Amino acid sequence: MDNNNIQDSITNAYNYLKNQEHQLAIKIFLSIENFTNNIDVVKGLALCYYYTNQHDNAIRYLSTYLLNYPNDYKYRKMLCESLINFKNYEEALEHFILLLPHDSSNSLIKKILVCFKNANFNKENKIIKLNSLIKANDLITEFYCILSELINTEEAISLLNNAKFKIVDNSIILAKLFKLYQSSGNSIESHKICVELLSRKPNNQIYKYYLYRSTFELGNFVEALRLVTQLYNSNPNNFHYSYSQGLCYYELFDLPEAINKLTESKLKANNNSWIFSYNIGLCYMSMGQLETAKSFFIEALSMKPNKPDVIYNLGNIYYSQGNFQKAKEVFSKIMDYSAPTINDSVNELTILNLQNKSIQVTHERVIRDLIIVKKLKKMYNNKCQICATKIPIGKDYYYSEAHHIRPLGKKHSGPDEINNLIILCPNHHTAFDNGCIGVSPLTKEVFQFNGTAIEKIGILHLHPEHKISEECIKYYQTNIFLGRL
Ligand SMILES: [Zn+2]
Predict the structure, then answer these.
(1) What is the pLDDT of residues 327-385, one digit of tens each?
(2) Exposed, middle or buried by CB within 10 Å (0-12, 13-18, 19+), for 453?
(3) Domain extent for 299
(4) 406 CA → ligand 1 middle, Å
(5) Which pLDDT score, from 0 to 100, does residue 310 have?
(6) Centroid of ligand 1 to alpha carbon of 388 (angstroms)
(7) Is 321 part of any domain?
(8) Is residue 37 part of a domain?
(9) pLDDT digits (tens, 9 = 90+) for 36-63
(10) How many angstroms does the Cα of residue 148 sit away from the middle of ligand 1?
(11) Is the pTM of the predicted complex or chain greater than 0.70?
């Protein structure tokens, strides 16, 4: 076959291609394929196979063509399509990464997200790929959002703070940042973000609710009540608003009004959650109306049996009324979980200990999980993790205390989980509570701050089965430990 014949055949085949007679075009291209390295043959076959949905062949010829013309983005897009049709999402993604700097249309982003969702990646792989996507085009909100859900809170906050300056329409990024700050207990930052979001969309109900939440968490209950009352007035049927009003009144010690509002939300929600009865019970308990409180706690337990904080408050009422038998019966619902035989003195000590804990009303209620604490004390044999002291309180019974590294409650919002708990003697517990003990997140070395100097006093003893959260230690070190400077 001479060059002229080949050139004629190529022209011929392209005419068929133009007229959408793909099978004839393919036949001609294939007949000359072995006699020439003219790239138009490869390109023609790529087009024919692509248009006839023969994606395995299309992928082969498109790939060859792109080796010669890597900047032909139209053909790379076609290759992506074929790879998606062939369900090779991983490789499609690689080509999308090359396309991204040149094309960031919504349709392209949508396809990338489909590939990402279907690709067979583990978590680490996902993080690597998302970083490549962001590197290829750092203006796509979706990539930041997905990545922020895969990395830890601290990293996610810095990622999104970086993104918010790059992306002009950054409301979605800000809303995500709000939630991260809120879950990490940084009410000051979450409040700032609400204000910013509302300055753009002053009528957005969700942002208004965010503002109420962060104001509540900052402890400004008067302002929180004002904000949520505005929301309530615009939609009195939403039980979340009357419920939130009830929580504000509770914090402001207006207990009758708190009961009013909580009862209203209970009715509006058709009594569909134990949380209403429980909170109403707490109000009556604070007012000293123990019998009424009891009936609400029992009602809450009928909806949500074995809820530790309800059990513990109900038990406390029986205990304070001197009905120890009944108190023990109620408490045993929690105690029975891990150990069937508990010495009475230990049992009573636990009860006394519990009585001193204040009851807090927050949105996601702070729960002292007695089961976890019991498990941990057993694991450490009641030995202080710093000094190994154990305090005997009877034959074969010892006393120890559980400490949350990052405190629970509104201000710090530490997690009520085993990785945020350590077992201490009362001395070291007090020192910790006052910010006088420091722990290195890395080496677990323990330091004591005496007001002027810091000295190393040992290493935090850790049971092999007990992992503690580095994030919680870091939080404690930066926010509570007095020797931090
Ligand atoms: Zn100790």
Answers:
(1) 888 877 765 443 333 333 333 333 333 333 332 323 333 333 456 777 788 889 889 99
(2) exposed
(3) 274-367
(4) 18
(5) 86
(6) 6
(7) yes
(8) no
(9) 889 999 999 999 999 999 999 999 999 9
(10) 39
(11) no
Distance 420 CA to ligand 1 centre (A): 17
DSSP one-letter code for 483: G
Instruction: Tell how far the Cα of 424 is from the centroid of ligand 1, in angstroms.
Output: 5
Distance 146 CA to ligand 1 centre (A): 43
Residue 338 CA to ligand 1 center (angstroms) comes to: 25
Residue (of 251, 321, 238, 315) closest to 279 by Cα position: 251
Task: Please indicate, yes or no, if residue 320 is contained in any of the structural domains.
Answer: yes
CATH code (residue 299): 1.25.40.10
Query: Is the distance from CB of 460 to CB of 427 less than 8 angstroms?
Result: no
How many domains does one find in the chain? Answer: 1
User: How far, in Å, from the CA of 404 to the mean position of ligand 1?
Assistant: 15
Quick check: 261 and 245 in contact, CB under 8 A?
yes
Whether residue 99 lies inside any domain: the answer is no
pLDDT per residue as tens digits for the range 169-205 = 899 999 999 989 988 878 889 999 999 999 988 998 8
Residue 171 CB coordination number (10 Å) = 16
Task: Compute the distance from residue 313 Cα to the ligand 1 centre, in Å.
Answer: 30
**Mean per-residue pLDDT over the chain, rounded:** 86
- Give 462 Cα–ligand 1 centroid separation in angstroms: 14
